[in-house]
């Protein structure tokens, strides 16, 4: 019936040519990582390069070869810099070469990890089981790989509200709650928690932020008072969010004490372990996150301190049924068959927001096997020791001021020089940071602590050597002195 | 000060060895795609392979070489099959070889696309601008690459409720709404919309599902009645969701008429274009989605009909300020600097849930340049013609029954054979589908239409040739006849 229909394909006309291009990409990519130390950490994208990115939708083909050349010339050189040994901004991993190969292979086999019966499920289930082992939650917990901790925290809080609402909140909505739910965290909690609570429809006000002590840790007495006051006022305390590593200073809440409190008060205990959950793999430092294993849910990131390429986060929920009940939805076109491709008891799409899901599990699976967790643990210890060393180097310089205790792998400090008002010091350190970035030698980031602008170095870096920290301090002193001289000139 | 600290790294001790392994991965990966047609579409993972995935967290390293061997032996052969020319299940793309190279390169440079000043922003902004051109929304719209349409729809509905709530719903929450919001869609709307509305805290009930006509399109008279009734009952109509391609049958709502209605009623008009938004690039078929360009927001998927490897979805929101106002949150550690790495006016993290974001833009940017959109348009036309051909082949066989008009590239039919009760036919076709999967020659999926179980083929495949469709029909007839013979034996 009918004639032949047109038969074009996106496969290359000439596989040999594309193969040779792909091999070049491998060599260029590995060169890029091998030579990381030889490049500036960061440099601005030149205006003439930036101008290239305004061309309209390409209707005509330019071919893989020319597209790749555009990448080499316009994209590869002007990167963020977090592959570099002296990048310490925000809290990002470096990635690894074999991790990148993992992403290539995942895109080649290209399964949809939302559902169906295929081996990807076994890979992801194994990786999620490994994450349960890392955080110390039982094997029969629910779990899911997600884009990162923002989503992991969102999923956990969605489960918490569903499990503790006392009504069918999926069906009836937040407005049907007899009493408004309250979520508790310290002022140091990550902003993604506020975003999650707002998106879930509870309003910013539903996140009760409580003070911290001098170590930037959750004040438990304040928590007890707040929960009591909310109950008295007719609100319904729902969950307490502890931080295993805060974003500003790397402080870790007393998770054991929070777990005790939650058990006593029958509250959901969630741990945001985006930064520090993986510290649990280190025999030397795991005591810092003790109590995490008692949580009802834990969010963790694998693209941070374990250096899996972006994106790789994970959420673990102790009550697997509650996890499933929050997200499961099986219309007819997704019904599970008893055998064949559409079989499988548990589909990952029933545990999160995404239906189509990429094979992010593969790079984790390959990387964990490649290095083994003992090595990751030593690298965590190494970064913690480096942050302590940086703290010592700062304390040894009278022109510098350590602004908070060094928590985990994060040091916050500023250039004081010959001193000045708070406003002067803030302005000077803001400009100092920009000059450091523009100098291309070191790339810390920044925060404000009690109104003081600080340089902030999060040493999440498997390429940093201790000599890099000495160079960092030198650069800060040199740049700070020059700024001060300018100001007084 | 102090001695040398330990200095391990995740970089390979021997770059040459890893390089050679990566080159092997390239060859194996490209072979895998080049030989797609020679493999079974799907086969179950053997029990002895599945048993390998229960080993505990690897503490010791096994090295990249052995990890890769595990992938080759345990993972690569037992895939979902959506790279195969005869995979037509659900609605998934195949991916491409160069797209996979794009994911490798993205993981090598490994930027965090949440924020900061680096070239990745220019790449993503260009890709998002291209998506605006595809769907016909203005250049100054807001937009974001996301994991897929589930997230794109979630983002769009979150903006819609914020923009139309009449109160500051972020701050005050859903419970503070003076009147409950209502979202309208047809019964054919994708399940992710219900999930989004539930997660946003409005309750399942806030999604009003209205009947469809014989072409499975939104019944506009029913919509008008429902909006009127809700207003009269003190509820607040918020948004209407049109489908540019429904998941069951590929029907497209009358988007122009929906746009008229929304303009008249001052409702937010959202288009779920996960399946069909990209039809707008085809001069031959773009009339089908006319009216989409009048939407307030559009969700589309690039990992479906444009064959970008998972994950790549996109949301476009006409009112950029409303988009920003829904998600923007800038704590001190994310403050934007005037110059340097931390500069940049617009950070993508202010337009969605994620803070850490991978460089998914790169594979899209490379692929669009490689092929040009005219070629993607021809491939869309080709798949639509193939679906029509499949419909003709089905109609030509008295033993087969076409169960719905062929919408876009989706055909739903069943094996009737010598007939039977609805229950018998359902059971027979369910078993038939499983046998097709187990046979490994073709992989459609399934749905139920008005209680009838159907085989469902979504031809989203740049490798399908028209002869594959003839083979499909042959396989269905052969398998159906065998089942019928068994039943009567």
Compact overview of the structure:
2 copies of one chain form a homodimer. Helix content of chain A is 42%, strand content 13%.
Keywords summarizing the entry:
12 strands; homodimer; Aspartate Aminotransferase, domain 1; seven-stranded mixed beta sheet; about 40% helix; five-stranded mixed beta sheet; Aspartate Aminotransferase, domain 2; about 500 residues; alpha/beta
Notes on the protein architecture:
The structure is a homodimer of 489-residue chains. Chain A is of the alpha/beta class. Chain A folds into two domains: 103-371, 3-Layer(aba) Sandwich (Aspartate Aminotransferase, domain 2), CATH 3.40.640; 374-488, Aspartate Aminotransferase, domain 1, CATH 3.90.1150. Chain A is 42% helix and 13% strand. Chain A has 15 helices and twelve strands. The first copy, chain A, has helices at 15-34, 47-50, 63-75, 97-109, 119-135, 149-164, 169-172, 191-199, 220-232, 255-265, 320-327, 361-371, 373-395, 422-439, 466-488, and strands spanning 87-88, 142-146, 181-186, 207-210, 236-243, 268-273, 297-301, 313-317, 400-402, 410-415, 443-449, 452-458. In chain A, strands 2-8-7-6-5-3-4 form a seven-stranded mixed β-sheet, with helices on both faces. Chain A has a five-stranded mixed β-sheet with strand order 1-11-12-10-9. In chain A, helix 4 runs antiparallel to helix 12 (361-371) and helix 14 packs across helix 15. In chain A, 60% of the residues are buried.
């Amino acid at each position: 019936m009918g004639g032949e229909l047109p038969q074009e394909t996106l496969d290359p006309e000439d596989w040999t040519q594309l193969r040779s291009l792909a091999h070049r990409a491998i060599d260029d990519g590995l060169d890029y990582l091998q030579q990381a130390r030889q490049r500036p950490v960061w440099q601005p994208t030149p205006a003439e390069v930036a101008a290239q990115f305004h061309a309209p939708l390409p209707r005509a083909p330019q071919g893989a070869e020319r597209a790749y050349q555009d990448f080499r010339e316009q994209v590869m050189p002007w990167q963020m810099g977090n592959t570099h040994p002296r990048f310490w901004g925000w809290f990002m991993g470096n990635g690894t070469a074999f991790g990148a190969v993992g992403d290539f292979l995942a895109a080649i086999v290209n399964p949809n990890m939302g559902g169906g019966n295929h081996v990807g499920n076994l890979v992801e289930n194994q990786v999620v089981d490994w994450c349960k082992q890392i955080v110390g939650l039982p094997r029969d917990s629910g779990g899911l790989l997600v884009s990162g901790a923002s989503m992991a925290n969102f999923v956990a809080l969605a489960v918490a509200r569903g499990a503790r609402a006392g009504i069918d909140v999926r069906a009836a909505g937040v407005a049907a709650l007899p009493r408004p739910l309250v979520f508790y965290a310290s002022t140091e909690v990550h902003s993604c928690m506020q975003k999650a609570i707002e998106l879930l429809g509870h309003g910013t006000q539903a996140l009760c932020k409580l003070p911290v002590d001098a170590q930037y840790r959750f004040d438990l007495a304040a928590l007890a008072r707040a929960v009591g006051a909310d109950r008295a006022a007719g609100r319904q305390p729902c969950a307490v969010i502890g931080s295993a590593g805060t974003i500003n200073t790397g402080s870790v809440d007393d998770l054991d004490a929070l777990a005790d409190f939650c058990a006593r008060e029958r509250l959901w205990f969630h741990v945001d372990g985006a930064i520090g959950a993986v510290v649990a793999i280190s025999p030397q430092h795991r005591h810092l996150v003790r109590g995490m294993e008692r949580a009802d849910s834990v969010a963790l990131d694998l693209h941070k301190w374990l250096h899996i390429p972006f994106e790789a986060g994970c959420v673990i929920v102790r009550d697997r049924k509650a996890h499933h009940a929050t997200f499961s939805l099986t219309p007819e076109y997704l019904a599970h068959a008893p055998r064949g491709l559409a079989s499988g008891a548990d589909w990952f799409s029933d545990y999160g927001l995404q239906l189509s899901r990429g094979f992010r599990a593969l790079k984790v699976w390959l990387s964990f096997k490649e290095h083994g967790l003992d090595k990751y643990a030593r690298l965590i210890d190494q970064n913690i020791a480096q942050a302590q060393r940086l703290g010592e180097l700062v304390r040894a310089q009278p022109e510098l001021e350590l602004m908070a205790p060094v928590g985990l792998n994060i040091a916050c400090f500023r250039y004081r020089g010959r001193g000045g008002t708070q406003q002067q010091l803030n302005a000077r350190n803001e400009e100092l940071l920009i000059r450091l970035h523009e100098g291309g030698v070191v790339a810390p980031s920044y925060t404000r602590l009690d109104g003081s602008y600080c340089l902030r170095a999060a040493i999440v870096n498997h390429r940093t050597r201790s000599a890099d920290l000495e160079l960092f301090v030198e650069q800060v002193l040199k740049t700070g002195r020059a700024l001060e001289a300018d100001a007084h000139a």
